[in-house]
Amino acid sequence: MNDVPRRTTPPAALAAALAACLFAAGCVGDPSEPQQDGQEAAATEEQPPLDEPRDEPVTTASDEESAQAEQPEVETNEAAPESPEGDAEPESDSPNGVLDVTEFSAEPQESNGFPELLTDVPEDAHLLLQEVRVGIHEEYHRIVFEHSGAGAPGWSAEYVDEAVEPGSGFPIDMSSEAILYVGVVGLEPGNAGQSDGHLELSNLVDTQGTVFSEAVTTFVHHGSASYYIGLDTARDYRVSVWEHPDGPRLIIDVLV
To answer: What is the pTM of this model?
Structure first.
């Protein structure tokens, strides 16, 4: 039997073929691991972040506080409020811009339900007088008694012959032709004076050309205090209380 000659692969050629196969396998890699080409990688990097700003504005805590600070003061009795400018008290003229003089009178006046307070005042409200200031408006002049604390005090007002201290009744020296008395209730319980943070004003220094010639405020006596306003003559007036974040403001407007 004739032997058929067999073709054999030289060892060198076999080694080269095996190396080529291993090289190709290394390039392909594990098919379970997806590969990204350059374009796919670039596309992934260009995706926008998840926290990209939205078109709608987002209200923050500071925004809410600013919005609350800009709210107009709320009046707690009859006079109609107007928009305040800055920290000034709002005027209370008629909507058509004409002052409603029927709101003014020289007769005794008092807050709703006096001697009850206009609003509930917590025991720790610490309502005390902080400042007295005056201003000029068209057809009337204004004096403001600004308080610290929360709530709205009650008040009564009338022209009197003389000013006196609460409790003792000792006279207070005032030289004005007319004296408008405003009694305020619902202040710091008990007694309070200058050392407690309550303003005891002996005279109004800067009258700013108003009809107010004097202003005297007494100490707090059993939660009440007396405010006396000196005028050149008895004039029609109106009284209102405005709530404010810094404390209530007792406002007296006098026709001129």
So the answer is: 0.64
